[in-house]
Write a structure and sequence with these properties.
7-stranded mixed sheet, 499 residues, 40% helix, alpha/beta, 6-stranded mixed sheet, binds adenosine-5'-diphosphate
């Protein structure tokens, strides 16, 4: 099956691609009401690889009803903690069993290279489901002192943590399986039921996982999957009054529309949005290491990643050395199909995305920034774009202000720590930041000054599942991963008893 730029895939992956992919609602595979379909394209070859039924408002309505029935059923709400833990662990085991198939699907769907993005995806999902399985029987409230005035009786009070209800989850295409697992894991551990709408560009790993959810034996309706377009299925889910909570990862613009949609029934909202993350290199840093890590964090997933170090600030004495090192690394990166183990840079998700990024590169050149590496498309089929480094940038340039979501980074000089802080924070976003230095004072000054949800010293964007992850400013609401990620799906009930 060498039709993926000379790379083979397993026969099981091939068989999955060939299936008639339907919606998963109430524990059954069903056709979409409209019969509309999505053509799934391998962005590295521009070839169609699968056809998926596209859900719309009517299907979302059915899925929300199924999730509500499941939420209120005894089978789900009275499930014993040990059965609940076992279900999540079984799902993790099934993902581990099929990891090699899921990895191939993820690469074909999104374009990400096997190393490192593709190879990390299934193990991340396995770890997430195991981690949140571990929380299921540890969710507890508190026993609190309380007075019982006027009754003459004794009083006691306690809190219970209860699931929020039906969760609508809307995920993006840039790291499909990771995004799905980081939402499903905590929602299911908390006892919510779910309607999931994956990105229209990348529905395959979600469809595969829905099959494993069925195989694991989750009660019908606990997880419902409706692939579909954002403006139809996504908007219907965000608007639906039967949804108690919506969790969204994607662009800031759509995030704002989700907030507006949520006002109908004041559903709870959590958002993980864009970033324009500063990567601040002081003169005493290990420049070779900093340049390597800047290349990694700028070009991981072709820069289509919200943590991307898209604004690199370098102190004057080491600026030229750093630009040379980063540009050299970028120029040497191997572009190709994600299935090939040597590939370091895969394609962008679509022609539309590549055109957007090329327009931004053109604007950078027009505004006087200097391209020190890349800047062009690669020859042949596939939405490839060279990893691109801009030097001599400044804060007024569009490339230094807007989230590019492509393999493009901007390097800029600074003089001293005051200037570094002011540049790092000169953005509406606040997802990630990093400081590169061996000086303890500088490190602590910067970590307290940078306005971002995750700040690294000599690392950038370390998003471990145990660590709360989310944004300051317009990068989002709430924190995913860790205990805070679970709490997004819980609400507190206070119970007081006079006896
Ligand atoms: P990107 O710019 O990275 O494609 P989007 O924010 O457009 O990110 O998409 C992220 C997710 O949001 C996808 O699942 C997409 O289908 C969905 N989406 C897009 N537009 C809307 C909308 N108006 N309402 C709800 N979901 C939407």
């Amino acid at each position: 099956m060498g039709d993926f730029a000379g790379n083979d895939i397993q026969k099981e992956t091939h068989a999955f691609l060939e299936r008639d992919h339907q919606l998963f609602i109430g524990g059954e595979w069903v056709k979409s009401a409209s019969g509309e379909t999505i053509d799934v394209v391998d962005p590295a070859t521009e070839r169609s690889i699968a056809t998926v039924q596209a859900g719309g408002a009517a299907d979302i309505d059915q899925a929300v009803n199924a999730a509500r029935i499941a939420f209120e059923s005894n089978e789900w709400s009275d499930m014993s903690p040990s059965t609940h833990v076992d279900l999540l662990l079984r799902l993790a085991d099934l993902i581990q069993r099929d990891a090699s198939i899921i990895t191939e699907l993820e690469i074909l769907d999104n374009g990400m290279p096997l190393n490192p993005g593709g190879a990390m995806a299934a193990p991340l999902a396995v770890r997430l489901f195991r981690y949140y399985a571990g929380w299921v029987d540890k969710i507890g409230g508190a026993s609190l002192p309380v007075e019982a005035p006027r009754t003459g009786r004794k009083a006691t009070a306690f809190t219970r943590k209860e699931p929020v209800g039906v969760a609508g989850q809307i995920t993006p295409w840039n790291y499909p399986l990771g995004m799905i697992a980081m939402k499903l894991g905590p929602a299911l551990a908390a006892g919510c039921t779910v309607v999931l709408k994956p990105a229209e560009q990348t529905p395959l790993s979600a469809l595969y996982i829905a099959g494993l959810i069925q195989e694991a034996g989750f009660p019908p309706g606990a997880v419902n999957l409706v692939p579909g377009y954002g403006e139809t299925a996504g908007a219907a889910l965000a608007n639906h009054n039967g949804v108690d909570k919506v969790a969204f990862t994607g662009s800031t613009e759509v995030g704002k529309s989700i907030v507006r949609s949520a006002t109908g029934n004041l559903k709870k909202v959590s958002l993980e949005l864009g970033g324009k993350s500063p990567f601040v290199v002081f003169a005493d840093a290990d420049i070779a290491v900093a340049a390597q890590m800047a290349a990694f964090s700028s070009f991981f997933l072709q820069g289509q990643n919200c943590m991307c170090s898209s604004r690199i600030f370098v102190q004057e004495p080491v600026y030229a050395e750093f630009v040379d090192a980063l540009s050299g690394i970028a120029a040497g990166m191997k572009i190709g199909h994600g299935l090939s183990p040597e590939t370091q840079i895969g394609p962008l998700i679509s022609q539309q995305q590549r055109t957007r990024v090329l327009d931004l590169i053109a604007s950078g050149k027009a505004e006087g920034a200097e391209v020190t590496s890349g800047g062009n498309t690669a020859d042949g089929l596939g939405y490839f774009l060279q990893p691109t480094v801009f030097a001599e940038t400044n804060q007024n340039m569009k490339i230094a202000r807007e989230e590019i979501f492509g393999p493009v980074t901007c390097v800029q000089k600074f003089k001293d720590i005051e200037e570094a802080i002011s540049l790092a924070n000169a953005t509406d976003y606040g997802l990630v930041g990093s400081v590169w230095t061996e000086d303890l004072h500088t490190a602590h000054m910067m970590t307290s000054a940078i306005k971002a949800g995750t700040v690294g010293v000599n690392n950038h964007g370390l998003a471990d599942i145990t660590l709360p992850f989310g944004g300051y400013k317009q990068s989002g609401w709430g924190r995913e991963f860790g205990l805070e990620g679970l709490e997004l799906y819980l609400q507190t009930k206070t119970v007081s008893v006079h006896y």
